[in-house]
């Protein structure tokens, strides 16, 4: 079967954006491809090196949410990046053939340097994380990498690195293709993109009272000042969530009633709340189970990392032979 590789930084409990942006797609892919999904804890260190202590507990919480949503360790290999040291070895070797200019032109490098002001990102690891990302992909001889459009430049850089390595040492790596995922850009409670760093997220496991409090204060159509004012669902962040999490009949009802001021914003939010609660309750229950059984999650990741390392070791044997470094 063709191989798919994707990873996620360990940020702890996940939110609606993670579900719609990555996890739903991963659940589908695990039935169609040979999938490797990993906890990118070394990537987390590139920005959080000053205090790495949350990485381990966040790993267990995040993977608990993966399992609660429906990722199946019998169908996909779930593992931790740092438990497969071959990633680091390949990263070092690929960094030798990667021109510095390739890294400096990565769009997200300058963007994050400008936007992340509370951390010192003037380190090699942050500049070089696209090479580590390339190693994550190439070490499994991946055919596809599921990404959004904003991540396509990273996959193209991985292809360029693979191409240069193959030209220097012979054909070792296939050039992976971006597997574009069509995922809605979910707004957070303040109308910006949902993100933990913005503090505007709704978690998959938020208790009902907290979920309602977040929705109750969520921004709506800014032109709808009074209850009697007609609204425009097309510009309302709450309705954007209805499009994803409410059934079609509720979407039609909310759309029509909002436009004629038949319902107020609180009514609209309460309908969304009920649909979210129904959708997320089973996930929250399963996540609570895994949070209470961290050893079960840890053992699963150790076994998955063992399987991933077997595959990675095969690739590294080919790499060392191609570079004439094998003893």
Key words describing this protein structure:
327 residues, mainly alpha, Rossmann fold, Tyrosyl-Transfer RNA Synthetase, 2 domains, 13 helices, 55% helix, 8% strand
- Indicate the CATH topology of the largest domain: Rossmann fold
User: What kind of sheet is the major sheet?
Assistant: 3 strands, parallel
Instruction: Supply the CATH class of the largest domain.
Output: Alpha Beta
Instruction: Give the CA-CA distance, first to last residue.
Output: 32 Å
Give the SSE string.
EHEHHEHHHHEHEHHHHH
Got a strand count? 5
Rounded to an integer in angstroms, the radius of gyration calculated over CA atoms is: 22 Å
Q: Whole-number average pLDDT?
A: 93
State the strand order across the main sheet.
1-2-3
- How many DSSP helices? 13
Shape: elongated
Plain-language structure description:
The protein has about 325 residues and is mainly alpha-helical. The protein folds into two domains: about 5-185 and about 295-320, Rossmann fold (3-Layer(aba) Sandwich); about 205-285, Orthogonal Bundle (Tyrosyl-Transfer RNA Synthetase), CATH 1.10.240.10. The chain is about 55% helix and about 10% strand. The chain is built from 13 helices and five strands. It has helices at about 15-30, 40-50, 55-70, 85-95, 100-105, 105-115, 125-140, 150-170, 210-215, 235-245, 250-260, 265-290, 295-320; strands at about 5-10, 35-40, 75-80, 145, 175-180. The strands form two sheets. The protein has a three-stranded parallel sheet with strand order 1-2-3. Strands 4-5 form a two-stranded parallel ribbon. About 35% of the residues are buried. The model has no long low-confidence stretch (mean pLDDT about 95).
């Amino acid at each position: 079967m063709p191989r798919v590789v994707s990873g996620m930084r360990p940020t702890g409990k996940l939110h609606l954006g993670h579900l719609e942006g990555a996890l739903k797609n991963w659940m589908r892919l695990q039935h169609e491809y040979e999938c490797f999904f990993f906890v990118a804890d070394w990537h987390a260190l590139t920005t959080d090196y000053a205090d790495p202590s949350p990485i381990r507990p966040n790993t267990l919480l995040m993977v608990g949410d993966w399992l609660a949503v429906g990722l199946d360790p019998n169908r996909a290999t779930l593992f931790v990046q740092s438990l497969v040291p071959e990633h680091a070895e390949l990263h070092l070797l690929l960094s030798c053939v990667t021109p510095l200019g390739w890294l400096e032109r990565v769009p997200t490098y300058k963007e994050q340097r400008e936007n992340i002001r509370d951390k010192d990102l003037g380190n090699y690891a942050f500049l070089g994380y696209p090479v580590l990302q390339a190693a994550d992909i190439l070490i499994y001889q991946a055919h596809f990498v599921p990404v959004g459009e904003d991540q396509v430049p990273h996959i193209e850089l991985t292809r360029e690195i693979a191409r240069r390595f193959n030209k220097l040492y012979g054909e070792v790596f296939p050039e992976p293709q971006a597997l574009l995922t069509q995922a809605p850009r979910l707004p957070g409670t303040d109308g910006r993109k949902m993100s933990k760093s913005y503090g505007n997220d709704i978690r998959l496991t938020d208790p009902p009272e907290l979920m309602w409090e977040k929705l109750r204060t969520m921004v709506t159509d800014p032109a709808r000042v009074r209850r009697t004012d007609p609204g425009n669902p097309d510009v309302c962040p709450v309705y954007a969530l209805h499009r994803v999490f409410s059934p079609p009949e509720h979407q039609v009802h909310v759309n029509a009633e909002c436009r004629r001021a038949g319902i107020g914003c609180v009514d609209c939010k309460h309908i969304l709340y009920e649909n979210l609660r129904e959708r997320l309750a089973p996930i929250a229950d399963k996540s609570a189970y895994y949070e209470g059984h961290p050893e079960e999650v840890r053992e699963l990741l150790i076994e998955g990392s063992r399987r991933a390392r077997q595959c990675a070791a095969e690739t590294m044997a080919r790499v060392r032979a191609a570079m004439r470094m094998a003893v």
